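>> received
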Amino acid sequence: MLKVQGLSVGYDEKAIVEKIDFHVDTGEFFGILGPNGSGKTTLLKALSGVLSHTAGKITLNGKNLSEYAAKELAKLIAVLPQNSSHSFSYSVKETVMLGRYPHQQGLFKSISSHDEDIVFEAMTQTGVEGLHHRKLDELSGGEKQRVFLAQALAQEPRVILLDEPTNHLDLSFQKSLLELLKKQTKERNLTVVSIFHDLNLASLYCDRLLLLQNGRSRVVDHPEEVLKEQHIKEVYGTEVHKQAHPHVAKPQIVILPDVKAEENHLAAGEKYLNIAPETITYKSPVPMKCMSSGVIGSGFGWFKNVVNRHVSPHYNCTDYKSDMIKFLKESEFDPSFTVGMMTAVNMEDVEYGTYRFNEHSIFVVVTAGVGNAVDVTESEMSPQEIKPGTINTWVIINGKLSDEAFIEALVTSTEAKVRAMQDQKVYDRRTGTLATGTPTDSILIASTHQGTDYPFAGSITPLGRLIGKGVFQVTKNAIESYRNRMNKPN
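>> returned
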């Protein structure tokens, strides 16, 4: 559809964009990225035919852009600039109707019923149909932006060029606008080329991206490649971290601030633990990066508090999340900063310990009841109802864990828990086989995010060996405490 070869563009003989090569396919959503002054808007003006290029060429459908007559080109390309400085007092409908100009014929150009239908559809798609009688100069910046997008769509172009289309728009309209454009690429084969400042929006909606650096192409590829940390760090001059979007297969970029917390390398330990008849709580002096299966705070997140709440073995689990949130608030814990778990085990059975080896240190807390222990390999033969978690394991690590290290710490902890159950000869009563856990075990892996960097935490690493030793010993002690109490005469 659109092909750029060796393109150089500038002003007053000064090159702003140099030796750019890329193509945009029909129906593609193509994004242009780069810091201020990198040449994004200059490139877009060249693509629209407004700005002549000093070298190279731009072809549209195989024909040189300069060979198109102005009206012919207007039927193929529509442009939505970054700042529309129109100050006239046209109505919204009249402004959108201007998009029909390239399609009108004759000396006395009249508005046909087809023009009316196209304009109404464009206004409806952009959510401005209710503003059709309003004057343009009465509207907010975001409303004007949507009006000019409607004008561009009314033009029925094959290609639409946009310079930061989400500028002035709130979150809901950013999403609706980009969803609309994406839908147009799929349903009408509209080709979209857009400048973005927001890297994450560009990643979510664009098929491919061009990253400009000082007027030259740094990389042209799919978002996963373009948004690599090294590219963004070098082009924008700032530290970033790339991570996966939680719901779609697209990368997201987060800025890493230079602010550093006051370091306390031993922020995990017994002095932050409190044991009461109804709760076991841990109040960290620093925010901890956590991975957990808690009732509240599950998945990855940053938390300062961990709460293990005692409930009845017959606790109704129907609305456990709302109930847990209510409990935390009543106990003066902010649910936004708390990992919350439940257990039917008596809190007096809790066991914990600090384990150190050279510069490595961890703190482990376990509550374990094994009355409903199961062998996971046989559990499908005898399904059980959901009950409060029985073996709850906390592993709090002094150090900075990578995502890989979190996962390996989870695996290592689970292996150590199973080994402790084998050591204590815990059996699944229904099958007579050695148990591997209980139906609703919960686990927390927490990192103080201070001190030593841990890229890995498998059993071959010093940290992994410490986790294996600590979880095994504390789980074993917790099972013994549980059994001793259960065997006491009434």
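>> The chain has twelve helices and 22 strands.
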